[in-house]
Amino acid sequence: MDALLLSRLQFAAATFFHFLFVPLTLGLSVLIAIMESKYVRTGDEDYRRMARFWGKIFLINFAIGVVTGITLEFQFGTNWAQYSRYVGDIFGSLLAIEATAAFFLESTFIAVWALGWNRLSAKAHAVTIWLVAIASNLSAVWILIANSWMQRPVGYVIRNGRAELDDFVAVVTNSYAIHQFVHTISAAYILTGFFVMGVSAYHLLRKQHTVFFGKSFRMALNMALIFSIIAVVQGHMNGAKVASAQPTKLAAMESFWETRQSAPQYLLVIPDEKNQRNHLEWGAIPGALSLLAYHSTEATVKGLKDFPEEDRPPVTLTFVSFRIMVGLGVLFLVLTLIGWFKRNRLEESPRFLRIMLYSIPLPYIASEAGWTLAEVGRQPWVVYGVMRTSDAVSPIAASQVMVSLAAFVVVYSLLGAAAFFLIARHARRGPEPAPVAIVERRD
Q1: What percent of the chain has pLDDT over 70?
Q2: pLDDT at residue 441 greater than cutoff 70
């Protein structure tokens, strides 16, 4: 394997591992902030206990996310120096804004929140977690703007042999970034909802802390249901954006080889990438792909064969990632709708609770599949239509990358094992005891 492939594998491994922790940070910060706000408003001690319980999981998750995120940025200098040299004027400025405007705010106030339980008033403490939540999601805004520029580059000029920033407003208002932010945040909040519901289901099945985890479950259910609906609706809109910005990705998502008017969408397809066709196409919905891509059943959709082979992304991986993401997204909507009707009789629905417990990994899989689709589907471009991935890699020996890749795998495996052990142990342990007055009132 050459340095290019190894560098891609290393960046992919680091990104996928990092993104195991990012969505829960984004969503859980908001959910905890809502819990603290409800405590301030109602004085119900359960909400304070909920914020403390879920807050400990949040802190573990946040710490690992920060550590793994820093190593990603280093790779732009070590493995992707040519990329950094060519587009650093644009990409670097966005990452700098993220660090100074969001990450520092987040890191500062998360310390104040973690250490301020008995030092700040309830209102002041709630404000600190809201600042953490806002900063976390603001950080995601700038990261996604940077990534969206790679997907649909705007506001730049080629000058002095590199891409230079020409229109900052065009970059930050990139329509691709708006769609990507809504979709990514929706996925993060769905993941958070399912995580909290799954842990709550574990305790409800064992009839432990039923009032506490019943409230947690219902709050998480509301979040997951709302954003499952948003994700499905916005996913259709995102299809049109991909069609206009990256038509090769759209064709690969559907394993669509021949240009056609009124292009159908198939319920079952088995790609044959080697022979540039499909082994199986079953369940055609006439005009559905044209409608998804261009909002008209009569529109013409360009097939993969109309693009040079060297400009096509890996079809099978893009196709499968898309199907996993969409299939799980529909499942999340179905499960949250069922949960909505069972929300007031959860303890009488053990089968549903078991499903939700075992569903905890599914949003993680969906998120990773979504990022696989976004990044693999953009290939062979690191910046779509501007710079090829093969031109972005550093001029280093494959042996050097092999060593660092092996080190990443070992260290990240240890970090992941430690993080998931700590999260699982705390989740199983349950919340701190309720104040005596609360216990007596409920008994």
Answers
A1: 98
A2: no
Tell me whether residue 121 is exposed, middle or buried, using C-beta atoms within 10 angstroms of its C-beta: 0 to 12, 13 to 18, 19 or more: exposed
pLDDT, one tens digit per residue, over 33-68 is: 999 999 999 999 999 999 999 999 999 999 888 888
Q: For residue 372, name the pLDDT band (cuts at 50, 70, 90).
A: very high
pLDDT at 436: 56
Enter the pTM of the model.
0.92
Say what the pLDDT of residue 440 is.
Answer: 39
3-state secondary structure the chain: CCHHHHHHHHHHHHHHHHCCCHHHHHHHHHHHHHHHHHHHHHCCHHHHHHHHHHHHHHHHHHHHHHHHHHHHHHHHHHCCHHHHHHHHHHHHHHHHHHHHHHHHHHHHHHHHHHHCCCCCCHHHHHHHHHHHHHHHHHHHHHHHHHHHHHHCCCCEEEECCEEEECCHHHHHCCHHHHHHHHHHHHHHHHHHHHHHHHHHHHHHHCCCCHHHHHHHHHHHHHHHHHHHHHHHHHHHHHHHHHHHHCHHHHHHHCCCCCCEECCCEEEEEEEECCCCEEEEEEEEECCHHHHHHHCCCCCEECCHHHCCHHHCCCHHHHHHHHHHHHHHHHHHHHHHHHHHHHCCCHHHCHHHHHHHHHCCHHHHHHHHHHHHHHHHCCCCEEECCCEEHHHCCCCCCHHHHHHHHHHHHHHHHHHHHHHHHHHHHHHHHCCCCCCHHHHHHHC
